[in-house]
């Protein structure tokens, strides 16, 4: 077993088995780190808790809902507005966050009265909203507040409202993944089957494990609608509370994120016989295969193929342009759960990037198995790294970019490694054909950013260019200034000849904003 021991974690010998390097000829049986275990004391994990996984990942994307946390205000504040779960009701669920704001006195004397008061006040403050999700936290769970009983009292007194209770305190699992499981099962136990929907198509699906990050879901739903498919509910991006109560009437559960939402799909199969079909909306080939699978299930493959042909013809040339310029760039793929294996192979195959490391903070063994199996030899795979291990890995691997969350991403920027926010995106959506090109564009812009290139200058010894137009000087001196440059494509052909930044740090900058005349720059 090719375990990797970080120097910064030598004082925690247990950490050695949580990082491996995939060697020559090795498969997942010999290159799999330990994962989804309780955090080792002293390792200073950056994981989220089970409450975070329930509320922040699964619950909050529901759009027409008051999301109330029963606990200290810090719990709900930490899970507010950190992802771009947009909705078509003016992003109500992103604008507001609610907490009972438990204090020390409530820990001693109980906070059930406080909870009931807060629930009623919230409904009165937003009279158009009649639905609520109620989340347990560590503080209220430890003192034994019966939030189910309080929710039942309020619904009896206010029959027009409906409340969903999620008992997922922070200590409810090794990581936020434990919260994914709890809210999945709680939803199907409490709410599914309580509403009968209007069926308008012969092909009806639930789109599960999709959270509409910067509009990802809308891209996919548009494809389904073009195929004549009715999307009964989305679990839970831009999802309506009452639509999600009717999940039992779908003909098929189309699952995107298996790490966060396979549990409810499996239960729907057991209880209602609804089949599950896993898809992947990232990348041209995975996207095409996914549409074909859905089309095959309903016998409408021709409709799927029409979309594939149209979108591929429209966007593939632009993707190839980026691939040529991203080929060989090294990336640390540190996104978390399912994106670990959704992206590992396809960013290599379709963008030319070399994945030098993968990690997950809350993924299970299955996530690592799929991710590592899709990576090249020499890839460093890490389970639940801390900040120091992440820094050490970057110093060792010297990636050109990392895909990760905001916290480790900001750390990377301090050592001059650009990052893209794998959780909330930079300029999404990234799903679908156009979205995949948008992702490639964001990668390109991050790596070749002039500002990033300037950050590589060591002001103690490097010459600092002071001419404001220094980026264009070499181009202008070697070109006919009277020649018209009429398009971005024309300009790329010119600028692609020059390694302007290479004089500073061995980097290249093969693109420049289009102008009608280069001489006007």
From TrEMBL:
Residues 49-447 form the Nitrogenase/oxidoreductase component domain. Signal peptide: none annotated. One of its GO terms (molecular function) is nitrogenase activity. Keywords: ATP-binding, Iron, Iron-sulfur, Metal-binding, Nitrogen fixation, Nucleotide-binding, Oxidoreductase. Its cofactor is [8Fe-7S] cluster. The keyword ATP-binding applies. Its EC number is 1.18.6.1. It catalyses: N2 + 8 reduced [2Fe-2S]-[ferredoxin] + 16 ATP + 16 H2O = H2 + 8 oxidized [2Fe-2S]-[ferredoxin] + 2 NH4(+) + 16 ADP + 16 phosphate + 6 H(+). It is an enzyme of class 1 (oxidoreductase). Belongs to the NifD/NifK/NifE/NifN family. This is Nitrogenase protein alpha chain. It comes from Pelosinus baikalensis.
């Amino acid at each position: 077993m090719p375990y990797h021991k970080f120097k910064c974690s030598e004082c925690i010998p247990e950490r050695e088995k949580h990082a491996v390097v995939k060697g020559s000829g090795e498969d997942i049986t010999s290159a799999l780190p330990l994962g989804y275990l309780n955090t080792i004391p002293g390792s200073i994990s950056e994981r989220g808790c089970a409450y975070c996984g329930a509320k922040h990942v699964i619950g909050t994307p529901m759009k027409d809902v008051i999301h109330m946390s029963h606990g200290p205000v810090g719990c709900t504040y930490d899970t507010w507005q950190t992802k771009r779960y947009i909705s078509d009701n003016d992003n109500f669920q992103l604008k507001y966050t609610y907490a009972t704001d438990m204090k020390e006195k409530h820990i001693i004397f109980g906070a059930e009265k406080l909870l009931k008061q807060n629930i009623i006040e919230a409904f009165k403050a937003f009279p158009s909203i009649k639905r609520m999700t109620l989340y347990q936290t560590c503080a209220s769970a430890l003192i034994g507040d019966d939030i189910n009983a309080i929710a039942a009292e309020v619904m009896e007194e206010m029959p027009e409202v409906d409340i969903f209770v999620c008992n997922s305190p922070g200590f409810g699992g090794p990581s936020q993944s434990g919260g994914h499981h709890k809210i999945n099962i709680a939803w199907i136990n409490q709410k599914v089957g309580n509403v009968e929907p209007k069926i308008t198509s012969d092909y009806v699906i639930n789109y599960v494990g999709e959270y509409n990050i910067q509009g990802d879901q809308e891209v996919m739903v548009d494809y389904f609608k073009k195929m004549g498919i009715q999307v009964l509910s989305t679990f839970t991006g831009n999802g309506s509370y009452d639509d999600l109560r009717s999940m039992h009437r779908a003909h098929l559960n189309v699952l995107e994120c298996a790490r966060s939402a396979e549990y409810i799909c499996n239960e729907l199969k057991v209880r209602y016989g609804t089949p599950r079909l896993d898809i992947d909306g990232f990348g041209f080939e995975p996207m095409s295969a996914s549409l074909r699978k859905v089309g095959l299930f309903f016998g409408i493959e021709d409709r799927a193929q029409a979309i594939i042909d149209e979108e591929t013809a429209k966007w593939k040339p632009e993707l190839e342009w980026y691939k040529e310029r991203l080929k060989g760039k090294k990336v640390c793929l540190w996104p978390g759960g399912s994106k670990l294996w959704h992206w590992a192979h396809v960013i290599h195959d379709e963008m030319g990037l070399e994945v030098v490391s993968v990690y997950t903070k809350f993924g299970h063994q299955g996530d690592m198995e799929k991710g590592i199996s899709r990576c090249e030899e020499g890839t460093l795979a890490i389970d639940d790294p801390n900040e120091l291990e992440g820094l050490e890995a970057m110093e060792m691997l010297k990636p050109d970019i990392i895909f990760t969350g905001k916290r480790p991403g900001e750390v990377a920027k301090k050592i001059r490694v650009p990052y893209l926010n794998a959780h909330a995106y930079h300029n999404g959506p990234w799903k679908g054909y156009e979205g995949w090109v948008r992702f490639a564009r964001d990668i390109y812009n991050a790596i070749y950013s002039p500002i990033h290139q300037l950050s590589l200058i060591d002001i103690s010894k490097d010459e600092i260019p002071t001419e404001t137009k220094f980026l264009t000087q070499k181009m202008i001196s070697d070109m006919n200034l009277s020649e018209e440059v009429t398009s971005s494509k024309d300009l790329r052909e010119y600028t692609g000849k020059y390694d302007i930044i290479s004089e500073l740090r061995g980097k290249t900058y093969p693109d420049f904003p289009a102008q009608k005349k280069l001489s006007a720059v």
